[in-house]
Amino acid sequence: MKYVLVTGGVVSGLGKGVTASSIGLLLKTCGLRVTAIKIDPYLNTDAGTMSPFEHGEVFVLDDGGEVDLDLGNYERFMDIKLTRDNNITTGKIYQSVINRERRGDYLGKTVQVVPHITDAIQDWIERVAHIPVDGKNGPADVCVIELGGTIGDIESMPFIQALGQFSYRVGAGNFCLVHVSLVPVLNVVGEQKTKPTQHSVRALRGQGLTPHILACRTTMVLDENAKGKLSQFCLIPAENIITLYDVPNIWNVPLLLRDQKAHEAMFKVLNLHGVAQEPNLEEWTCRAESCDLLHEPVRIALVGKYTCLSDSYLSVLKALLHASVDCKKKLVVDWIPASNLESPTAKENPDAYKAAWKLLKGADGVLVPGGFGDRGVQGKIIAARYARENRIPFLGICLGMQIAVIEFARSVLGVQDANSTEFDPHTKSPYIIFMPEGSKTQMGGTMRLGSRRTYFQTKECKSAKLYGSKSFIDERHRHRYEVNPELVARLENAGLSFTGKDETGQRMEIVELPNHPYFIGAQFHPEFKSRPGKPSPLFLGFIGAACGQLDAVLQSSSIVDNGLSKGVGSDISAVNKAYKNITATKTAAYRTEYIYGSCNGLHF
After folding, report:
1. Fewer CB near the last or first residue (10 Å), C or N of the chain?
2. 327-345: b or e for each residue (b if 16 or more CB lie within 10 Å)?
3. Angle made by CA atoms 63, 69, 72, in degrees to the nearest 5
4. Can you tell me the distance from the alpha carbon of 285 to that of 572, in angstroms, rounded to the nearest whole number?
5. Which residues participate in catalysis according to the annotation?
């Protein structure tokens, strides 16, 4: 087993996760089997109880693991399925060591950070690295490990000590360290400053780790003078210093690594010459170039609670992007704080109210994602009603589906007090109820989590057709509340159709309005299994409906691959060829545009 460790220096938020994902993809296209591990030094056992404002979205795995959003990047880039153990936290390590101490496994010894914590970290890495994640038998060839945080953080020190020991445990030729660091440019002098990176590498060496490859985050290509300084003062060969400059979308990052021969540098350190082949990124290159050249927009109004931090809905954004590229449209996301659509805002902040409604009325589609708590709920209900009454394509995810049911009960059935017991525990019309197996005292890990099976009640509905007319599908869940099964008949008699249910038939999984161009709600989170080139079927249908291509999407969905639609734009090379006639001037202009629109430009 070979190991590639990715660390970060100077500042956080440099893009270590994207870099690690890109390294994994690059090695995979070289014919190697790859797995990944993310180390988060915080004391939480997992990301499940952390606020999206604090740490971005909580990504959910097939086994129900609630993990850091970087594992979503790993899965999307490398097309693998990870487990909860692929996310290591300080909380997990200390919990396992304390449990062993309570059992008496240490035979009365004084339990210390070194060697007990550091040994536990090394054992965990080695064990998880051998778990196959690509659907094949046997362990992977390479394990990419990302150490969260920044070199010098107090909470990272046990992990750095453990990884230093681990490099000796696995031996030379089996361990490669890639250090991602910032090379800033001061506007006053306009010069790339290498001193922060020099200090970062020195700090890393002082803690027992020596980088083999330096990945420099910059706004532009690293000049030769700066590269020479880094090579001289950091004691790293110039050919092992890679520039990761700002790009219009993160699909270009693996191409930067390939073009600068990062794979050859890793092959040399890991003794993989003669084993691995040259990377084959032709399809990925076509997809990245096509994405950069798209210019005909599709506007999606995302009505949510956490709209001030785009990472809160990272997987939703990625799924929208995958689908829009498949439909050959440039994605523009209009962020609408749900509470800004509510009538109290019209009095308190009329400008925000008018701006929110202007965005909603100008959208080609309306998406209400998952969330918790009652803030902004009325605004989400208003958005669902607007989409339903004006026949605007609508996709509701998790809470978004529940909102759609409440809105239908209020507006169509006339049950004005219809509500969820999450928002009003004493409501007399509980259309959404707490699941009987849930816990109201323990928050972490007590929801309905992970991959669950949904059975289609008819193959003639839009959702079934989008999934290739399958009898059932497996999607990932994360919720505590569900549609009240005692009120389903009343809703269906009024025209709402529950087209997907669980194996018992009592838990509603998919809801549709048959007489609407596209109005679908899903209790599960389809965004977690969306991949570049293999968009989530519900997202593909949503974007298709938003840009007038739903019939073509439904027709193409009759051909399925592993349960995912190939979509209307699966011939990426043909798309790329079609855009070759665009002038160089336009191409340069499009490349500098932000792929998610003005609110979320993606410099990685």
Report:
1. N
2. bbbbbbbbbbbbbbbbeeb
3. 60
4. 10
5. 398, 525, 527
